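Teaching assistant's notes for section 4

Start the section by putting this record on the projector. Ask students to predict, before seeing the second block, whether Na+/H+ antiporter subunit E will look compact or extended. Collect guesses on the board.
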Amino acid sequence: MKRYLIFSVLFGALWCGVHGIIDIQNFLFGMLLGFFVIVLLKNLYSFEEDVSFIKVINKIPKKILFFIVLTIEVIKANIILAKIVLSPRLNITPGTIEYHLNVKTDTGITVIANTISLTPGTITLDVSTDKSMLYIHSIQADEPSKICGNIQKLEKYVLEAFE
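Reveal the predicted structure now:
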């Protein structure tokens, strides 16, 4: 129940920020709405460990940093992909790459898999049954170590922000 209260308070603050009106009625409405959303979706999003308010607050800067890094990586990948598509010769070497995961939680695996799929030119195909490998399709699979190195950089931020 403590977790629900913590996240309800965060939803209340988020609601005020998105709505643009900061007053007690708006905050309480956001809290109430957040509480009902949490209760309705609790079976879908189970917590893997106890969550404290301090822990949630401490991870906010790390999540912001992750989204900044992700945005930069997506922009860089778009530029590279545009060069490939606009070049006179379509010089691509598509293929599947196996990537060994460092993240262990379902949340971490989901975030890194979706991050890979958001980056143009790559898409996550599958997760191994033991959740230790990702199978990724890339349009430039001629240098798998380079692709894995880029994913490792992103995974470092995922580990800090989501695990």
